[in-house]
Amino acid sequence: MILTEPNKVFETEVFKLTVHQSGLAELLLKHNTVFDTKDIIEGKKFITHFLNGKKAFILLELEGDAYTTKEARELAASPEHGTHHGAIAFSSNKLAYKILGNMYIKINRPTAPTRFFNNRKEALHWLNSFILS
After folding, report:
1. How far apart are the C-alpha atoms of 14 and 28, rounded to whole Å?
2. CA 29, CA 101: separation in Å to the nearest integer?
3. What is the CATH number of the domain that holds 102?
């Protein structure tokens, strides 16, 4: 299973990022934080260094309430930034985040396959299908 492999953890005041050898990258946005472009750039540096250029399959979750700036959303979806994205799954059981996540997908049109899930298990299953292909 992809979660039992050795991994590296990178943590800031805004997020915690756990990267597995398989390419799975678990991104947890911390409660009451603002996720901005500098956070996205920091996360990408950590992922690309640890995975040595391999694609990352990102699971994004929230630890309570968090805000992502417009600039961060645009950067995350851009072809220039998304070169390391294999697939992206958002996971939350909150209706407001489901609406915002689906709006992000429709408006920003990320270059990698991107979906929103109501629970972590479904999101991991979907990401695993990309990792194993």
Report:
1. 9
2. 14
3. 3.30.750
Query: Can you give the pTM of this predicted structure?
Result: 0.90
Collapsing DSSP to helix, strand or coil, 74 comes out as helix
Q: How many domains does the chain have?
A: 1
- The SS3 of residue 48 is helix
**90: Cα separation from own chain's centroid:** 7
**Under 8 Å between Cβ of 88 and 104:** no
Closest CA to 7 of 62, 45, 60, 47: 47
Domain that holds residue 53: 2-131
pLDDT digits (tens, 9 = 90+) for 37-67: 999 999 999 999 999 989 999 999 998 889 8
Measured distance CA(93)–CA(41) in Å, rounded: 27
Q: Confirm if 90 and 117 have CB atoms less than 8 A apart.
A: yes
Q: Among 39, 47, 53, 44, which Cα is nearest to 81's?
A: 44
Q: How far is it, in rounded angstroms, from Cα 101 to Cα 107?
A: 10
